[in-house]
Amino acid sequence: MTHRPFLDPFKGIVAKRPPWWMLRQAGRYLPEYWEVRNRSKGFLDLCFSPELAAEVTLQPVRRFGMDAAIVFSDILVIPHALGQKVSFVQGEGPKLEPIDVDRLEARGAGERLAPVYETIRRVRLGLPNETALIGFAGSPWTVATYMVEGGSSRDHAKIRHLALSDPLSFARLIDRVVTASIDYLRRQADSGVDALQLFESWAGVLPEPMFRQWIIEPTKRIVEAIRATHASVPIIGFPRAAGAMMAAYAEETGVDAINLDQMVPLGWARTAMPTKVLQGNLDPAVLVVGGQMLDDEVNRICDAMADRPFVFNLGHGIVPETPPAHVARVAELLKARG
Ligand code: CP3
Q: Is 70 in the pocket of ligand 1 (CB under 6 A)?
């Protein structure tokens, strides 16, 4: 069997230098991404064109040599597969048509995402043997925020109001997303990914009772279902900005690893989540600025995690204005550690 360093931390192995990859490592900060993106009709077309999506997935690994690639897709392919119309307007982000919970069609949603599985098979053939491949989905709460709000939202007022005022119909929506996501993640695992990540980008907006009901419970259902059929595939949870709820999320959902956002103090994370693989924490703004500050931050984070299973990564996605040279600098700094 080929050795994939990315998987070491999940086996309890602490290497001299941590394996690394970067959230949103494929994308708009790379000129070669634009070259491919401009050849497709729109962003979703790119996600559903296996040849182009595979190329874009491989680009950052070719340039920087990360230990893992993440399949090029989006968390909003789930609403699309459930029958809700999704479009991406340049400069405005995603737009979703008004939701009708009764008309969502959970069955067969996973099947409709067949191009993503084809992308996974193509990426696996194009990746170096020692590079891992990560599959992903949005977590149900975060996906539902886009479905209910109709796009990105500053205060998530609509969805919080719906969840509080009509919990029964909101539970039906979450159930449909859970069912479709389980199917989608299993099919990604069957197609050849080494690990799965669940993006809960909007974990930071709920009070405790709602956090337990709409974030921990649905995530736990997904983790248990994947474990029942694909026990050897590690699952990374990313409850971004969950603050004081993060440790309960880690323990109660049963994920193997936690992606730390940049607001989490590392000393706290070590004590609060001693049995979890930890990943992340570098501030994407530091990656934009670069210089001595970037060197210092990379080394500070690696030093703080040097004696425990850790995957080097960002605390949130790379932003488009990031100079590619700064990502190359991170690769160099990590190499210098061993
Ligand atoms: O390298 C990778 O990580 C590529 C795969 C990937 C994308 N989106 C590609 C993408 C992943 C893992 C995501 C996750 C995602 N998508 C999240 C969770 C992580 C996070 O950032 O919080 C969320 C909330 C989304 C939803 C989404 N997709 C939004 C809100 C937007 C518009 C804002 C933006 O950043 O443009 C997208 C578009 C998107 N997803 C792009 C890419 C490369 C840009 C599309 C383009 O080329 O125009």
A: yes
